[in-house]
């Protein structure tokens, strides 16, 4: 039996079969099975959209605070 440290960190071996993991280019997370990468990337996009919306709200508020003062 091989140790887990000597095997490929991007693959999982079960019963002499190797299953490859997918790696997120954005955050470096490893996904297994590979089908989970698409929902993971969708969450990245949704979080980025949420962050942009919150930033717009903050910029709007700060601009109005400057106008009042």
Strand-helix topology:
Blueprint: E1 11-14, E2 17-20, E3 22-23, E4 30-31, H1 37-68
Antiparallel strand pairs: 1-2, 3-4
Can you tell me about this structure?
The chain has 69 residues and is of the alpha+beta class. The chain is built from one helix and four strands, in the order ββββα. The mean pLDDT is 84.
Task: Pick out its properties.
single chain, 69 residues, alpha+beta, two-stranded antiparallel sheet, 46% helix, rod-shaped
Q: Write down how many β-strands occur, each being a DSSP E stretch of 2 or more residues.
A: 4
Largest sheet: 2 strands, antiparallel
Indicate the mean pLDDT. 84
Give the ordered list of helices and strands: EEEEH
Strand percentage: 15-25%
* Rough outline: rod-shaped
List unreliable stretches of 5+ residues. none
Global structural class: alpha+beta
Distance between the termini: 72 Å
Query: Given the structure, what is the number of helices?
Result: 1
Q: What is the helix fraction of residues, given as a range?
A: 40-55%
Taking strands numbered 1, 2, ... along the chain, how are they ordered across the largest sheet? 1-2
The domain tally reads 1
Taking Cα atoms only, what radius of gyration do you get, to the nearest Å?
Answer: 21 Å
């Amino acid at each position: 039996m091989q140790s887990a440290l000597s095997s490929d960190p991007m693959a999982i071996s079960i019963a002499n079969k190797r299953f490859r993991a997918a790696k997120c280019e954005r955050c470096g997370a490893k996904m297994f099975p590979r089908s989970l990468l698409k929902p993971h990337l969708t969450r990245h996009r949704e979080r980025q959209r949420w962050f942009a919306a919150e930033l717009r709200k903050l910029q709007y508020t700060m601009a109005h605070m400057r106008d009042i003062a």
